[in-house]
Design brief:
Layout (H helix, E strand, L loop, with lengths): L7 H5 L1 E5 L2 E5 L1 H22 L7 E10 L2 E6 L2 E7 L2 E2 L8 H12 L5 E9 L5 E7 L2 E2 H7 L4 E2 L11 H14 L8 E2 L2 H4 L8 E2 L12 H6 L5 E2 L18 E2 L2
Parallel strand pairs: 5-8
Antiparallel strand pairs: 1-2, 3-4, 3-7, 4-5, 6-10, 7-8, 8-9, 11-12, 13-14
Helix pairs in contact: 4-5
């Protein structure tokens, strides 16, 4: 097994000395160590290296909020945190409820999904990208303006990073979802108790502002949406009755 073997005098005896003492070392042992030690080292490294996580299929059990859901997997019930995005918390009215409802419409209870697991978070949830067919549910939440790109953890979607950033930019330009709000604290700030106006949207920070659409536009305000309960939406400002004032 440990070739080649030594011959002649080397085969009979190999000497090691330390502090005047001499030991006879079996040369076959020395040869084995020469060849086996690197192999053992490699095996040890492979044993502790992170293993790739395999995709798995599941069925939707429930939706907790705009970026959390429960799935019945082959190994049992698991909680999924949608990777690379952050949706408004349910306490962030009205967008928290709107985001949750939109996710429910994308993945209704009992619908089949595919999970691309990335890691486990500190709460024991599986951080993952969820697919319905070929569609990334994570990406669709961003496209619709119901979630922001979570740049701090975007490395989990490294291969599609630009798609997420482009989707967010498009939602901002179209003033969809959270980007159509006059003032909303970003979810990561809200969880830290920072109730600051991170998103400066299309309506003022505090309630109704009197004035014509012309004067409001001059201040950089508008349009205002009836569907979002905007304080500055009025039927008088919505001349064509399409639910959008001062467009």
């Amino acid at each position: 097994m440990c070739e080649p073997e030594p011959t002649g005098r080397d085969r009979d005896q190999i000497l090691f000395s330390k502090k005047g003492e001499t030991w006879n070392i079996d040369p076959i042992f020395v040869i084995c160590m020469k060849y086996l030690l690197p192999l053992v080292t490699i095996v040890g490294i492979l044993a502790i290296a992170p293993q790739a996580r395999a995709d798995f299929n599941g069925k939707i059990i429930s939706v907790g909020d705009g970026d959390t859901l429960a799935v019945q997997s082959p190994s049992g019930k698991v909680t999924i945190r949608l990777a690379c995005i952050d949706a408004p918390e349910r306490a962030q009215a009205p967008m928290g409820a709107a985001s949750t409802q939109y996710l429910k419409s994308l993945v209704p209870v009992n619908s089949n999904v595919r999970i691309r697991e990335i890691e486990n978070d500190r709460y024991g949830r599986k951080v993952a990208e969820v697919f319905s067919g070929t569609d990334s549910i994570n990406l669709r939440m961003v496209k619709a303006g119901h979630a922001a790109v979570y740049r701090q953890y975007l490395s989990g979607c490294n291969q599609t990073k630009q798609q997420f950033l482009d989707a967010e930019n498009s939602a901002k330009k179209a003033r969809l979802g959270i980007w159509g709000q006059g003032c909303m604290t970003m979810p990561w700030d809200f969880r830290r108790g920072k109730n600051t106006c991170s998103i400066q949207g299309n309506s003022p920070k505090s309630g109704y502002i009197a004035g014509t659409c012309k004067s409001l536009k001059a201040q950089g305000l508008g349009p205002f949406y009836r569907s979002q309960g905007d304080a500055n939406y009025t039927t008088a400002r919505d001349r064509d009755g399409d639910g959008i004032a001062c467009e």
